[in-house]
Amino acid sequence: MKIGELSKRTGLATSKIRFYEDIGLLRLVNRSANGYRTYPPEAEVILNLISNGQKAGFSLDELRKLLPADLEHWQHDNLLDALHQKLADIEDLEKKLAENKQQLKNILAEIEAKPDDIDCADNAKRVISQIGLGKGVSSDTKDGKWTPPS
Fold first, then answer.
1. Distances (CA, A) of 69 to 12, 29, 65, 72
2. pTM higher than 0.70, yes or no?
3. Would you list the domain boundaries of the chain?
4. CATH says 1-74 is which class?
5. Distance CA 126, CA 120 (A)
């Protein structure tokens, strides 16, 4: 099939297909005498694997190492190792994002809990000083009035 048809079947721009070919991810291409590219049906499978792999968080370099030269010669152990590693990476990222989310919730709660007798600028200084000291965010008031940490 020609590149236009492959583009329609995969939903990828022809420039992206040529890019994948140029960087060695798509090796299933033949050139006719007139220079036109022709692709076997397996090229559609490879392009879908690349697209889905990127959606799952794999970089193009990671995909290059995983994709076989042809679909008959997968390296089973390497594929499993890469999938397990990507899953672990995603779980680590989820943990970090949950920590960041909780920190933002704490900051938001502390800002919203501004004592009535201080203005917004002093409240911001109060919250920022707590973050900067690595103490997290917690109320630091005496007699209902904020005092900076010593």
1. 21, 12, 10, 8
2. no
3. 1-74
4. mainly alpha
5. 10
